[in-house]
Amino acid sequence: TWKLVLEYYKEMSPDRMVSALYKAIEKDLHGIVAVLIERGADVNALNEMQYTPLLVACEMGKTESAKVLIEKGASLNRKSSNSNSALHLAVQAGAASIAKMLLNKGMDANIVGQGNQTPLHAAAFHNKAALVDILIDRGAKIDAVTKDLLTPLHIASSKGHTEVAQKLLQHKANVNLKDKRSKAALHLAAETGNPTMVELLLHSNADPSVTDKEKKTPLHFASIDGNLNIVTILLAKQSKLGAKDMDVGLRLLLHLPAPSASTTTLLKLI
């Protein structure tokens, strides 16, 4: 069978060989991937999306094909049309084995992609908790910032990816760093209405009185959005309220449909 396969590929034109290479990667037929490259298929040939075979293998999480491509000399430096590296794509796919192979081959754990996002930012955005430890163990900067000054913790907090945030905090991520709008992770968690994330950040010494460029605290956002649960959590943490915080909190509580025990408790806290 293999002799027939070898003879078939021997007669193919270079363009057809490259096309066959991409199809073999999509199906993770790593044996055929190896044969095609040995028969002359360009290991770094670009497809119509300007991806190399390795970028495709990483994005699709095709571990065995990626291994063959790396062994056959695929370039680790090529990026996709939107500036994602092979490592970014492997992380997005949750392909831990591929990520390890790339790092073992010397890829920089802090390589930047679109908007200066690192692979650790990608892990936070795509909720790939297993990749967090791998990247940090290989030197990923835990508080790396994008062009908007977002850290991986900012991203995990805004997306509600609690497990990722927990791992970042275990690795001593700075919980009170601010982004371009002077928002801390706690602002983003309150703004997106995630009480579990709010509690996690507060437990990790997030400052409940932190203010953004508009002088708004996390309580502002929880109150404006009518999120009584988060308001309760923040007030229970004895947030240092300014006059504006007090007004917003009171307006929320006084406009609730009907008085309740929780409302009375909150008013007492304020």
UniProtKB/TrEMBL annotation:
Ribosomal protein as UniProt keyword: no
Ranges occupied by ANK repeats: 16-48, 49-81, 82-114, 115-147, 148-180, 181-213, 214-246
Species of the source: Salvator merianae
InterPro entries for the chain: Ankyrin_rpt, Ankyrin_rpt-contain_sf
Claim: Repeat is one of the keywords in the record: yes
Superkingdom in the source lineage: Eukaryota
Name of the protein in question: Uncharacterized protein
Record's keyword terms, sorted: ANK repeat, Repeat
GO molecular function: ubiquitin-protein transferase activity
Any one cellular-component term (Gene Ontology): BRCA1-A complex
One GO process term, biological-process aspect: protein K6-linked ubiquitination
Any Pfam family hit: Ank
Gene3D superfamilies: Ankyrin repeat-containing domain (1.25.40.20)
PANTHER family: ANKYRIN REPEAT DOMAIN-CONTAINING PROTEIN 39-RELATED, BRCA1-ASSOCIATED RING DOMAIN PROTEIN 1
